[in-house]
C-alpha cells in the first residue's frame, strides 16, 4: 500500500500514542453536575432556552443557536438547572454556561430510532444533523450543517473523513475507528448523500494500521468509499493538507475547502452524524483521550459534555507528582488550561497531562536570537517563512508580517517545534495577527 | 505512585505547541565544531604543534572578546552556545601556521567583538565573523598572513625554497610549473586531496573537510545548495577561463581542490546567519560566491578569492532573501 502525503514541510514529533492507543473506550458515569457552555462552536453563541429551576432531560435542547453559523446545545444529564453563569473554557475565556445538577434519573428526551435512515431525503438528514448540534469534533468546532450547506455556486464533489489524528498523544479518533467502523462509514454515506457527491474518502495515518484495516473492511461493500493510507507526518490532519493529499487540490490562499469542491469532517463527527440521523441523538457526549506522562492511568473516556476536566483526571487515577501542565486538545495546537474546572466541550478531543520535566522550557519563557537556519521554512506546510513573522513581530513591526502572507498561517506549530532557538513563533504570529491588521 | 494534589496546584499555561524538538542552537554549534576535528588533525599533522597553538589562541581570543562585550553591555554571557568557540576554531583553521601570537588574538577580537557582537550578537551579524577577522588580518599584516610554511610530514614534492601556495604558484608561474613541482598531475591531485601543500592550517586537506561535511550532512545541519553551487561554479569558471590556450582549456580540478574553497564552501558560505534562508536563494548565493572567487583568482591581484567572495556575497544576502521568497501553498488557483 502506498502512503500519500502533502508536498511541503511537515514534521515528525514522537507520536506518544502507545500510552493509550490500546485502551478501549470506557463510558464515564455522568457527573453530579455539568457545566454546559452556550458557545462550543465557531460562530455566534447560543441563547439559553431554560430558566434556573427547570428540570431538563438528557438530549433536551437548552441553547438556541443565533444565526446560521451556530449550533444548538443540549442537556447532557437529566436534572435541574441550578444556575446560568460564566465559566472558564479551555481557551481561558469566560463564557456563559448552563449548570445542571444531575438527578441521576438518566432520563432521556424521546429519541426516535429510524432504521431506514438511509432512505430519507437529504434535507431531512441535514435537518437532523443541524438539530443534533454537531460541530467539527477534531477541535475546530465549526458547525457541521454549515459545511454541509455550501452556497449554490460551489460545486462539491468529494467528502473526506479525517482519521489522520496527526496530533501526538491523542487516540480518541483511533479508538472510535477501531470500535465503531461501520457507524463511521454510515456517517460518511449520510454525508455523501447530503452533499450529493460521488465519492467519499477516509484518510488515516499509517501509524494506525489496525484502524486502516477495520475501516477498509467496513467500507468494502461500498464502491464509493475509499480508505487512504497516509504517511504519518504532522500536520497531515490539517484540512488543507488532507485535501491536497487525497484530492491533489490546493485550497487557494484565503479560500475554503469548498472552493476546491471538498468537505472535510472528523471521524468523531462522522460517528455523531450517524447517531444523529439514525437515533436522532444530539451531541451530549464524546470520546476524550486522557493521556500524557503526568496521568496515572491513561484512558479513552466517553464523557458527557459539560463534565469538569477534574473528574476525567480523577477517573484516570489522578495526576502524578510532578504533573504541571494540562492541555486541552493535542500538544501541537491544544490549549494549556489554567484550571481543572473547565468543562469538556464538543471540541475537546483530549487532555494531555505533562510533567514538569517536559515543560521546563515553557516555564522559563527564555528564547534565543533567530540564527536564520531556515528549519522553520523547511517545516512549514504552507510554504511560509515563519522566521520573518517571528523577527518582525519581536521588533513590533506587526504590519510588515503581511508581506509574508501572515494570514495563510493556520498555527500548526511546526515552525515552533523545530526552532533550535526555542522561539515562540506561534505566539508571535498570533500577536501579529491581532496587532498587524492593515 | 504519588498523586499530586489537585486543589491549589498551579498549572503552567503557555501558547501552543507544547512539545518541542530536542534540537538547539548549542547542539548545532558544538556539532559543527566537532566536525572540524578531522581538518584540524590534518593541520597539526602537516604543520606541527604550532597549529594547536594558533587555533587555541583564536579560540581563547574569541571567547574573551565575546565575554568582554557582553560584560560591557550588561548582556547575559552566551559562551555556552558554542558560537564564539566555533568562530575561533574557524578563524584558527584559516590562519597560516607561522603567524605571531598577536594576529590570532586581534583578529578574533575583530571577528567576535566587532563583526558579531557590535551588530547585535548571534543572528544579527551581516558578515561571517571568522572571515571578517581573517580579512582584517590579511589587510593589516599582509606579509605575515601570506608566509606559508612547508608541510613537514610525509614526502616532499615542493621546492624547498618556495613557500607559495599552489594557487600562488599557479598565478605567478603557471600550471606547468605547478605540475612540475608535484611531479605529475596525478600526484598533484593526490597531494591536494590529502592536504599536503602550503596553505592555511585547516584548509589544505580536502578529504578531512569532506569527512566533517559528510557528518554535517548526515545530521542535516548542512544543505547541499551552497557548497555544490559554489564549488561547481568555480570548477566551470576555471575550465572556461582558466586555461592559457584559450577558452575551455582550464583545469577545473586544481582550482576546486586548492585554496580555501572546500573550507569556505562547506563551512563559511553556509553560515546560517549570513547566507540566504530559502534554498533557491542559496543556489544563487553559491553561484555568486563561485563567480567572484574565480574572478579574483584569475583576474585580481590576490591568488585566492574565496574569503572576499563570501564576504561580498554576504552583503547580497538580504537582497537575495527578498527576491527568492518561498512559493506558498494555495498561491495558484486550482479549478475544481
Describe the structure.
The complex is a heterodimer of chains A (438) and B (336). Chain A is an alpha/beta fold. Among the domains of chain A are: 17-21 and 114-279, Rossmann fold, CATH 3.40.50.11540; 365-435, Orthogonal Bundle (Fumarate Reductase Iron-sulfur Protein, Chain B, domain 2). Chain A has helices at 122-131, 144-147, 172-179, 181-195, 209-219, 239-247, 267-279, 309-315, 360-364, 375-379, 386-394, 414-418, 425-435, and strands at residues 25-27, 33-37, 47-48, 55-56, 61-64, 73-74, 79-88, 94-102, 158-163, 199-205, 225-230, 262-266, 285-291, 299-304, 323-328, 335-336, 350-355. In chain A, the strands form four sheets. A six-stranded mixed beta sheet of chain A has the order 1-14-13-17-15-16. In chain A, strands 2-8-7-4 form a four-stranded antiparallel beta sheet, with no helix packed on it. In chain A, helix 1 (122-131) crosses helix 4 (181-195). Chain B is built from 16 helices and no strands. Residues 1-6 and 154-162 of chain B have low confidence and may be disordered. At the A-B interface, helix 8, strand 15, strand 16, helix 9 and helix 12 of A face helix 1 of B.
- In angstroms, what is the radius of gyration of chain B? 22 Å
The stretches of 5 or more residues of chain B where confidence is low (pLDDT under 50) are: 1-6, 154-162
Strand content of chain A: 15-25%
Helix segment tally of chain A: 13
Question: Mind describing the biggest β-sheet of chain A?
Answer: 6 strands, mixed
Question: What is the number of helical segments of chain B per DSSP (H or I, 4+ residues)?
Answer: 16
Concise overview:
The complex is a heterodimer of chains A (438) and B (336). With 438 residues, chain A is of the alpha/beta class. Chain A contains 13 helices and 17 strands.
Chain-wise SSE layout:
The complex is a heterodimer of chains A (438) and B (336).
Chain A: E1 25-27, E2 33-37, E3 47-48, E4 55-56, E5 61-64, E6 73-74, E7 79-88, E8 94-102, H1 122-131, H2 144-147, E9 158-163, H3 172-179, H4 181-195, E10 199-205, H5 209-219, E11 225-230, H6 239-247, E12 262-266, H7 267-279, E13 285-291, E14 299-304, H8 309-315, E15 323-328, E16 335-336, E17 350-355, H9 360-364, H10 375-379, H11 386-394, H12 414-418, H13 425-435
Parallel strand pairs in A: 1-14, 9-10, 9-12, 10-11, 13-17
Antiparallel strand pairs in A: 2-8, 3-5, 4-7, 5-6, 7-8, 13-14, 15-16, 15-17
Helix pairs in contact in A: 1-4, 3-5, 4-5, 4-7, 11-13
Chain B: H1 25-35, H2 37-47, H3 50-72, H4 83-93, H5 102-116, H6 129-140, H7 142-145, H8 166-173, H9 175-181, H10 185-194, H11 206-218, H12 225-241, H13 252-257, H14 261-268, H15 279-299, H16 306-323
